[in-house]
Design brief:
Rossmann fold, 192 residues, 30% helix, globular
Length: 192
């Protein structure tokens, strides 16, 4: 079920919502060490071109390691600072935002909050904060939970096939518009 876009959608810009681990950067579980941060090939270049085309760039990431006590918000902030610095140094990319869900999933694996993907909370929060046009926006992530979150928010969704998906539950909200193998495909589809 898609939720409606903010009332100012006609004056707002589209966004690319980006999952972090396994999509934007290599998936190193619970990583907060900037030395282990590796951008996916072609990501910075594609993001630079998408930003020039008028897309807001917003990272939306589940980070249950916070709730589990595996790292602190300060640890994650250091990683976020390193990510922003790397994107800027490589291609002049400035993220419009980075939102995270610090909660663990419920006992059945489903979100126990409104922000944990596949719930659309982070995308809706970003849309309200930065006046983003959800129907013209895209969500790109390496799991079907990312795809579902995008659809629930009213966006189109791409499954970045980097091996992150391990739970192939089906449903209409979990069917991506496209499966992509790399950032060149993301860019081509979003700008196409």
């Amino acid at each position: 079920m898609a939720l409606s876009a903010p009332p100012s959608a006609a004056r707002s810009r589209p966004a690319l919502f980006i999952d972090k681990d396994g999509t934007l950067v290599d998936n190193v579980p619970y990583n907060v060490n900037p030395a282990l941060l590796r951008l996916m090939p072609g990501a910075a270049e594609a993001l630079a071109r998408l930003a020039r085309a008028g897309f807001a760039l917003v990272v939306v990431t589940n980070q249950s390691g916070l709730a589990r006590g595996l790292f602190t918000r300060q640890d994650f902030q250091r990683l976020e600072d390193a990510l922003r610095a790397r994107l800027h140094a490589e291609q002049g990319v400035e993220l419009d935002g980075l939102l995270l869900c610090p909660h663990e999933p419920g006992p059945d694996g489903a979100p126990a909050c409104r922000c944990r993907k596949p719930a659309p909370g982070m995308l809706l929060q970003a849309a309200a904060r930065w006046q983003l046009d959800l129907p013209r926006s895209w969500m790109v992530g390496d799991t079907l939970d990312d795809v579902e979150a995008g659809h629930r928010a009213g966006c189109r969704s791409l499954l970045f096939d980097s091996g992150g998906e391990t739970v192939w539950r089906r449903g209409p909200l979990r069917e991506p518009e496209h499966r992509v193998q790399d950032w060149a495909e993301v860019e081509a589809l979003v700008l196409g």
